[in-house]
Write a structure and sequence with these properties.
Shape of chain A: globular
Number of domains of chain A: 1
Strand order of the largest sheet of chain A: 2-1-3-4
Order of helices and strands of chain A: EHEHEHEH
Number of domains of chain B: 2
Distance between the termini of chain B: 39 Å
Radius of gyration of chain A: 14 Å
Number of strands of chain A: 4
Order of helices and strands of chain B: EHEHHEHHEHEEEHHHH
Largest sheet of chain B: 4 strands, parallel
Strand content of chain B: 15-25%
CATH topology of the largest domain in chain B: Rossmann fold
Number of helices of chain B: 10
Shape of chain B: globular
Strand content of chain A: 15-25%
Low-confidence stretches of chain A: none
Radius of gyration of chain B: 22 Å
Low-confidence stretches of chain B: none
Number of helices of chain A: 4
Oligomer: heterodimer
Largest interface: A-B, 16 and 15 residues
Structural class of chain B: alpha/beta
Distance between the termini of chain A: 17 Å
CATH architecture of the largest domain in chain B: 3-Layer(aba) Sandwich
């Protein structure tokens, strides 16, 4: 196990992409824990910070492609909050690369394993969360 | 409303040094509207501080709460049980709120979480602009409802100056010239005659030049006897 990665996925695209990857039999790291959101716009800076405080080595948010959000602009809101959280993480001495926003379509099953792979490689590069055993 | 913005997190953390039991106290009024110190921002601040404490093994205990109005003692007194448990309060209200908490709980240190900026209004989502200079001697009736004290970079009473270019101020191409706005407003109102009226030098005594200001409305002030009755002491 490389680390603990939390993926906040919108039900329409992020989660659907993970679902499709599963149905296509594509493999990805078991280190990812998926939290299903009705829309990526539901993500709150607080959710992201709490995931890190509970020991996540990396966190990502997967929403619909830009312009394709089922609720018009939820994914744009999500990106803004991810950027806000990155600023807070940086102030706290946590590398902001541990957090990322991705835009994915529901029919892109192949992309989900790549997103997970990307975050796994970042955790491998950055090492475990600075919370260490405290998390 | 009062406009403020959060201090940088690093500055807040540095100011909290030496404290371990911290109460993060927000306000649901102005600073909640300007997304600086309402319930949501208090939650994020508290979680950020917990994360900082966990990373550095500081053992901080962080409590969080948000009162209706941190500038009024009636609401702030509700904080008493939480303040009792804390060795410091991080006030996420404006400077008025932070001072009210400090005045009511003089034995507990209050640290400001915000920089209080001005009296203004929301311009659009996520954007707030200064509107009132609080000069204590309003001239809006002469200036088409636009405050030259707060909105003119030079606080000119008889403008515009030569720095007004195409309706914008010379200090910044994104800042409208208040006196151009005043002219346009008076034109719309059919009161361009007011542009001819020379506003005489202003008395700044009702402003900060007279020291800290206090407004007393005699009819509302309670006598000692009335205070007694109101507090149910008789």
């Amino acid at each position: 196990m490389t680390g603990r990665i939390v993926g906040f996925c919108c039900s329409y695209c992020g989660y659907a992409s993970a679902d499709l990857a599963g149905r296509q039999g594509l493999e990805y790291s078991p280190d990812v824990m998926i939290v299903k959101l009705p829309c990526s716009g539901r993500i709150d800076v607080l959710h992201i910070l709490r995931a890190f405080r509970q020991g996540a080595d990396a966190v990502f948010v997967a929403g619909c492609l830009e312009g394709n959000c089922n609720f018009a602009n939820g994914n744009y809101e999500a990106r803004k909050r991810v950027n806000e959280a990155k600023g807070i993480l940086e102030s706290l001495g946590i590398d902001p690369r541990r957090l990322e926003m991705f835009n994915v379509a529901s029919n892109q099953g192949w992309r989900f394993p790549r997103i997970v792979e990307e975050m796994v490689s970042r955790v491998e590069e950055l090492g475990p969360s600075p919370l260490g055993e405290n998390g | 409303m009062i406009i403020g913005e959060q201090k940088p997190l690093k500055e807040i953390i540095s100011n909290l040094e030496g404290h371990e039991t911290i109460l993060v106290a927000g306000c649901r009024s102005c600073v909640a509207i300007c997304l600086a110190g309402g319930e949501k921002e208090v939650g994020i601040m508290a979680e950020s501080l917990r994360l900082h404490s966990d990373i550095n093994d500081l053992g901080w205990e962080i409590a969080e709460t948000t009162v209706e109005r941190q500038c009024e003692s009636e609401w702030v007194l509700e904080l008493a049980p939480l303040v009792e448990e804390a060795d410091c309060v991080l006030s996420m209200a404006c400077g008025v709120g932070a001072q009210t908490v400090q005045a009511l709980f003089p034995d507990t240190r209050v640290i400001p979480g915000l920089n209080t900026s001005n009296m203004g209004a929301p311009e659009e989502q996520g954007m707030w602009s200064e509107k009132c200079g609080g000069c204590g001697d309003c001239v809006l009736h002469l200036t088409g409802g636009i405050c030259p004290i707060a909105r003119c970079a030079k606080s000119l009473l008889n403008g515009p100056c030569g720095g007004s270019q195409d309706g914008m101020c010379e200090i910044d191409p994104d800042t409208p010239c208040a006196w151009d706005e005043i002219f346009q407003s008076l034109k719309r109102l059919g009161r361009l005659d007011l542009m001819e009226e020379v506003i005489p030098p202003k008395s700044w005594i009702p402003s900060r030049n007279g020291g800290p200001r206090k407004i007393v409305k005699e009819s509302a002030v309670l006598t000692e006897e009335e205070k007694h009755t109101k507090e149910g002491l008789d």
